[in-house]
Design a protein that fits this description.
The structure holds two protein chains of two kinds. An eight-stranded mixed β-sheet of chain A has the order 3-2-1-4-5-6-7-8, with helices on both faces. The mean pLDDT of chain A is about 95. Chain A starts with a helix and ends in a 17-residue tail after the last strand. Helix content of chain A is about 30%, strand content about 20%. The chains are: A alpha/beta, B alpha+beta.
Chain lengths: ~250, ~90
């Protein structure tokens, strides 16, 4: 049930036929995890907070650096040196005080991932490295929690939504280790990709639209093109297929 | 048997800036070999020392993932191959 204040606050999105008061109520009752409070995590957190998701848990072990500010728009000059999750919580609470913002300054590991995402309806991958993305992907598959992947480099980004047990997961095309390198990026690209991830989360929680499942969306900011590639669930995937648990 | 290969942005330095290259072959692997004959710099961009595709390279055939055994996938006239590089940044 929405309060009069909530009906006023979310009036413009309640006006969208697919959302309505029922959809808004679903968003209000939802709990999501955003893994990473950086370039992708910033727009995701801002738009999900503005949209009225009931509980948003943000996980990031890092502190704000000056070199983050070209893209991590949740953090400002005054936040340099502060924990990213504390900086994020301050801004998000000022944006929407009715949302329960849970800030967790933790490093995501295979040991703690399950506990960190426990009780949530969606896991949003806003990480900056592949090993942690895979930890989250496996955790999502095992706990049957939908997983919303996004990644960027330069002017390019990609988005994939995973419904465990039904669709291809992030690991389904795994071929081996990838070297971890400092990546180039300009803030407008994670803004685009993070906004699409947030859109996917809202659609999933409200039960509307067609998700980016089994479809990898690639954005090229230099050409301003979106390309879509079909993915197949890999029956031998070591996360979601027959080889799961045999690693 | 002409196939179009779409070159990723980061690889266009090896194709004189071309974003699409016409190649010939009966499999994805043969097509990539023909691509490398035309633009030798593409070899290091695509392959590890053991002639295995780099772990960061993804191959899509007619907008569908060619994984696994990408190089063995048959192609026909008019097919399109997209070479895409995996992204990890956030």
């Amino acid at each position: 049930m929405l309060t009069p204040s909530e009906r006023e606050r979310y009036d413009r999105q309640i006006m969208i036929g697919e959302i309505g008061q029922e959809g808004q109520g679903k968003l209000k009752r939802s709990r999501v995890v955003i893994a990473g409070a950086g370039g992708l995590g910033s727009p995701i957190a801002i738009y999900l907070t503005a949209a009225g998701i009931g509980t948003i848990r943000i996980i990031d072990h890092d502190q704000v650096a000056l070199s983050n500010l070209n893209r991590q728009v949740l953090h400002w000059e005054e936040d340099v040196g502060r924990k990213k999750v504390d900086s994020a919580r301050t801004k998000l609470r000022n944006l929407n005080s009715t949302v329960d913002i849970q800030a967790m300054a933790e490093t995501i590991t295979e040991k703690n991932a399950s506990e960190l995402v426990d009780g949530c309806d969606a896991i949003i991958d806003a990480m900056d490295n592949l090993p942690t993305r895979y930890i989250l992907n496996r955790c999502a598959v095992e706990k049957k929690i939908p997983f919303f992947h996004g990644a960027v480099n330069g002017f390019e980004g990609r988005v994939l939504t995973v419904i465990p047990g039904e669709t291809a997961c992030l690991r389904c095309m795994y071929r081996g280790l990838v070297p971890q390198e400092k990546f180039p990026v300009i803030g407008v690209v994670p803004a685009v990709i993070g906004s699409i991830q947030a859109t996917e989360v809202i659609k999933y929680l409200a039960g509307i639209g067609k998700l980016l499942t089994n479809r990898l969306l690639i954005y090229d900011g230099l050409k301003v093109t979106f390309s879509e590639f079909r993915l197949n669930k890999n029956p031998d995937c070591d996360h979601c297929g027959s080889l799961s648990g045999k690693e | 048997m002409v196939v179009k290969v779409h070159i990723h942005t980061t690889h266009r330095q090896f194709t004189n800036g071309s974003d699409v290259v016409a190649v010939e072959g009966n499999t994805v692997g043969e097509c990539l070999n023909h691509l490398i004959k035309q633009f030798p710099g593409m070899e290091k961009a695509l392959f590890a020392k053991n002639d295995k595709l780099l772990n960061t390279v993804e191959v899509y055939l007619n907008h569908a993932s060619a994984y696994p055994n990408e190089l063995l996938k048959p192609v026909k006239d008019g097919d399109q191959i997209h070479l895409v590089v995996m992204l990890t940044g956030g």
